[in-house]
Structures are given as structure tokens and as C-alpha cells.
Write a structure and sequence with these properties.
Two copies of one chain form a homodimer. The first copy, chain A, has 204 residues and is mostly helical. In chain A, helix 1 packs across helix 2, helix 5 packs parallel to helix 8 and helix 5 packs across helix 10. Chain A is elongated and about 65 Å long. At the A-B interface, helix 8, helix 9 and helix 10 of A face helix 8, helix 9 and helix 10 of B. Chain A binds a DNA duplex (30 and 30 nucleotides) through helix 1 and helix 3.
Chain lengths: 204, 204
DNA sequence: CTCCTTCGACCGACCGGTCGGTCGGCAGCC
DNA sequence: GGCTGCCGACCGACCGGTCGGTCGAAGGAG
């Protein structure tokens, strides 16, 4: 059971929401604390009442995304009947999450090395944990289908898949003909074609 | 025939090389003109002797990459026997180019919207021209193989492929077991599996 | 009910420092 | 002697962060 959020917690998350919006639009460095304060409707000193400094904003944003991503990935894997299905759902859910949080992921992907070096290590550790979940599904799938040839290492294959999926933050625009979920299914289909033992019938 | 580069041209390209190095390491906004000047071994005013302002550095970097990319893409397509071969070579050459110019592409991908709005339009036009070359190969390949089912639109498919390929700037590190060319071939193989009418025999 | 204390939320004014960019001048080569 | 390459010194703007202080609600004492 999560405790009811205090007024302070609400303010903090409002600040974070506004920060994501402005960081994604103007960049972390180019955004001043005054802009954020104005966006939230507070003064700059009040921002510092809630957060130690500018860096902490970025750390919180990045860390929260990691938490959410890890949680989603573990849930997805637990619910999937086979490693291949898990892999497919993992990719679909990443596409959906990315499409629905483009600003957030833009900040995470592009401001990654503005993170303070002392925390970067621990954050990287959690990012690796996420990637490892995906790699494990590939390995499990290959182990279950000894005839399959991946043509590369599982790590490279996962980097390729996650790259294709993450890149959607650069080109996806809402309001197109596809819902994020449809888009995710189509992309996952193309990405997993090379390791799917039962490709769709229409393949000639 | 290209004219012999003047001394000034050489200095300018030295400045650009150093700028790419520092921009990629510290970010465009976080990099001061003084740092660049120190890196080149000049004073700040001398930088302004060669370039109008900081923005122009970024524009030149970005524009040069576009030129080179378009040139490479056109050459590759012209030399390929079939659309599928062209597509494969296009992806391989992108991977190789990316691996060998990680800093450069990092700057282009991550500082894209620091570009001045008045030039952004024309630069975007050229970027679209590059993407269009790739899309055209997909269309031509599908037209030549009526039985093939792409499972999505050519545009989405190209975004997916280029995303996977571009993302390599985030994870590729030289000195690994694969050369960039090998890496490119492996990745292109996986990416094109879903539209390859003659997949490798070991597939089952 | 009232008075008084306490405290979180909040802000105007300010500071040290940095940044992009400029100015005026010097040196050396054609 | 003019042109190119070069620089020390400087400027206005702005930024992250702090300081000192206000205000109103909560809460206990009488």
C-alpha cells in the first residue's frame, strides 16, 4: 500500500512534470531554473525548497523512468507463456511507452551524460539490469529452438531491437493512422522475423 | 576537381574537428567557445575570425554530415545490382560510418534542435531526401516481389531499420570482437530477414 | 474561544561567476 | 601599405544558487 501523497509530494511531482516538458523542448542545459519556476507558478527559491539543485531534477526524472521500465519489463516477462512471446510483448510495450512519453524519453536519452558521475554508475547498473532481462529472453528462446541461427550475438541483436524501438521517440507523432500498440506489433513482427520459427504464411 | 584547401580552410576544419570532439563529450550548450579555442590552440577572438558565431559551428558540422551521407547513399544505390542489395549495403555502410564517427553522429543526433530555426527547414529537407532514398529501395524491392508481405508501411519499416542502425552510436565501442563491417552485415541480415525472399538455409 | 508558538511554503533581492561576442591593436607576409 | 591572422581586455546578459524574511495554518495551553 502506498501512502497518500502529501501536498509536498504533489508539488514535487508537478515540478518534475514541468521540468520534463521544458527540458525536452529546450534541453537540460539551456533551461534555467527560473523558467521551470515560472512554469510551475512558483519562485526560484521555492524550487530549491523542494529540490537540492538542478541536477537532482534530472536524476529524479531518469531514475523514475528506470524504475518504471524495470517494473514493466518484469511484469511482462512474468505474464508471457514463452520467451518469444515475452520478447514480442517487451518490444510492443516499449514502443507504446515511448510513444506515450516521448518528452520523457527524449530527456532520458539525450541528457544521459549530464547525470552526476557519482550516481551515473548506479543508474547504469539498473539500465543494464533492464537490458539483461531482454537478452535473457533471446537466450532462452534460442535454447528452446536449437535449429535457429541468430546470425549474430544475443547482445548485438538486443541492441538492435532496442535501438529500433527507442528511436521511435525521434519520429513518432500522435494522430497518425496507427495506434502505438499497432505500431508496436508491426515493429516487433519485423524485428523478430529472423528468429521466429513460424513466420506468417504469406511469406514467399 | 576540388580547389586546393587554403590555409584558412585548414584552420576552419581543424576548429570543426575539435568542436565535434568537445561537443560530443560535454554537449553543445555546455561547451564554451573558450574551450574550443584552447583545444585548437587559438584565442577566442580568432575563432570568430573563422566563424561568425557558435551556431555556425554546429550548422557546418550537421550540414557536412548530411552532404556526406547523401553522397554515400547515392553511390551505394548506384553500385548495387538489386534494390535488396542496395538496402543491405545502405544499412551496412551506415553502421560502418556510425561506428567510425561516433562523436560526429552523437552531436548530430543529440543537438539537432539547437540548430537555428531558419536553417532547420532546409536541413530537414536534405535529411528527408536521404530517408527517401532508403524508402525507395524498399518500395522497389516489394514491387519486384509481389508475394512479399511487409507487415507494415515502408516508412515505418525504414524508420525501424535506420533507428536500429543509428542507435549503434550509443553502444558501439571499438576494440570489440567484430569489425564495424562485420557488425553491419550481421545487423543488416537480421533487419532484412522479414523481406528477404531467400533466407539463409539454417532457418527453421 | 483565544492567544501564542512553531513550521512548512513561499519570495524579492542579491552574489559570484561564466558565457557569447566585440573592440582596438599588433605582427608579418605579399 | 594593405590584408590576413591573431590576441588581451573588456562588456552586457544571464545563470545556479543563497539569504533573510513574510505569511498562514496547525496545535497546544490557559
Amino acid at each position: 500500500m502506498t501512502a497518500a501523497p502529501s501536498r509536498a509530494d504533489e508539488q514535487r511531482s508537478r515540478v518534475l512534470r514541468v521540468s520534463v516538458e521544458i527540458f525536452s523542448r529546450r534541453g537540460y542545459r539551456a533551461t534555467s531554473m527560473n523558467e521551470i519556476a515560472a512554469g510551475v507558478g512558483l519562485s526560484k527559491p521555492t524550487l530549491y525548497h523542494y529540490f537540492r539543485n538542478k541536477e537532482e531534477l534530472l536524476v529524479r526524472i531518469y531514475s523514475d523512468v528506470l524504475d518504471e521500465s524495470l517494473r514493466m519489463a518484469r511484469e511482462t516477462v512474468a505474464a508471457a507463456p514463452t520467451p518469444l512471446a515475452a520478447l514480442r510483448e517487451l518490444l510492443v510495450s516499449r514502443v507504446v511507452y515511448t510513444c506515450e512519453n516521448r518528452e520523457l524519453l527524449k530527456v532520458c536519452f539525450e541528457e544521459e551524460d549530464e547525470l552526476p558521475p557519482d550516481l551515473a554508475e548506479e543508474l547504469l547498473r539498473r539500465r543494464r539490469a533492464f537490458e539483461r532481462i531482454v537478452v535473457d529472453q533471446v537466450r532462452a528462446h534460442l535454447a528452446a529452438h536449437p535449429g535457429l541461427e541468430l546470425g549474430t550475438s544475443p547482445t548485438v541483436f538486443v541492441n538492435l531491437c532496442l535501438g529500433a524501438v527507442n528511436w521511435t521517440y525521434k519520429w513518432y507523432r500522435p494522430g497518425g493512422p496507427r495506434t502505438p500498440a499497432e505500431l508496436g506489433r508491426e515493429m516487433a513482427g519485423a524485428l523478430l522475423a529472423s528468429i521466429d520459427p513460424a513466420p506468417p504464411p504469406a511469406n514467399r
